[in-house]
């Protein structure tokens, strides 16, 4: 199959109102601004018949809800784009949004991850400290950050491959974006950028779900808080030595 400029990879684990996977597909053309693109959907335990899937979407069925990082990995493995965009299914893409991310990644060799929302962290805790302000900047201007928010971000295909994909130990959710951006900066020596002018509409889902909510995945259920605590512990073990060495 022929290569494309941008692949948008979206894991879906449930049907819900707009913005949904149909919205992502419907807003891609304006977001690509003349670039070629494709939508690759990973079904995390939801049947295709329950969703308003765009007719031209490429679909990978994982059978059960394996989680965000496995879904993104499965979609990216099938993607053909020079730039791979990882997106939630509750996003409406703004005009030229994908074009701006693509252009940052293809014109800046030091760029590892690019997205609309960047944050600064104390990674030793780990703890979010503040959002990076790009308001008032010309579209396409970049501001360095520690982590690009996980509802929409992009990498060059070669960067995703160099990482070996997302760490699936963070399944089903929580900390996968923090880990990926840390890997890009600390191991590959690339930059994470918040990109000005990348407009989106985003309905926060799992990130605002109460901690006592149970999440079904991989044939079992867990409290969301239990998942988050386990993933924070994994992050601290994984990065402790490198973070301490670089701090010293």
Q: What does this protein structure show overall?
A:
With 248 residues, this protein is α/β, with parallel strands linked by helices. The protein has a single domain (4-247), classed as Alpha-Beta Complex (Spore Coat Polysaccharide Biosynthesis Protein SpsA, Chain A). Helix content is 31%, strand content 29%. It is built from six helices and 15 strands. It has helices at residues 21-32, 68-78, 97-107, 157-163, 176-186, 224-247, and strands at residues 4-12, 37-43, 58-61, 81-87, 91-93, 111-115, 118-122, 127-131, 142-145, 147-148, 152-156, 191-195, 200-202, 214-217, 220-223. A five-stranded mixed β-sheet has the order 3-2-1-4-11. The longest helix has 24 residues, at 224-247. The model has no long low-confidence stretch (mean pLDDT 94).
Describe the secondary-structure layout.
Layout lengths: L3 E9 L8 H12 L4 E7 L14 E4 L6 H11 L2 E7 L3 E3 L3 H11 L3 E5 L2 E5 L4 E5 L10 E4 L1 E2 L3 E5 H7 L12 H11 L4 E5 L4 E3 L11 E4 L2 E4 H24 L1
Parallel strand pairs: 1-2, 1-4, 2-3, 6-12
Antiparallel strand pairs: 4-11, 5-13, 7-8, 7-10, 9-12, 14-15
